Amino acid sequence: ENQSALAFCDKEGIECKQYLPHYTSQDGWRRHFGAKWSNIAQLKNKYDPHAIMSRGQRIFPLPSVPAAGTATT
Fold first, then answer.
1. What does the domain layout of the chain look like in residue ranges?
2. d(Cα 62, Cα 60) in Å, to the nearest integer?
3. Which distant-in-sequence residues (6+ apart) come within 8 Å of 11 by Cβ?
4. Are 23 and 56 in contact (CB under 8 A)?
5. What is the DSSP string of 22-55?
6. What pTM was computed for the model?
7. Example GO molecular function term (predicted)?
């Protein structure tokens, strides 16, 4: 039911935020944070460049990891 209500609000252009958000994509988080998103992304990149924190929330994609035995330049 919650997803249905959120879909309706999105379709009708009604801005709303989830009290306990559980977005399944970065786009959902981007909409949640709105105008603050670019600042959040910059700070995340600066202070957590290896994406150690917040992995389970799917706010930011995990960094690419080279395959074993692959040399990086």
1. 20-60
2. 6
3. none
4. no
5. --SSHHHHHHHHGGGHHHHHHHHHHH-TT--S-G
6. 0.57
7. cytokinin dehydrogenase activity
pLDDT tens, position by position, 36-57: 999 999 999 999 988 888 777 7
**Whole-number Å distance between alpha carbons of 62 and 50:** 8
Contacts of 61 (CB under 8 A, 6+ apart): 26, 51
Tokens of 5: 């209500």
Range with the lowest mean pLDDT among 22-26, 27-31, 49-53, 60-64?
60-64
**Structure confidence at residue 66 as a pLDDT band (50, 70, 90):** low
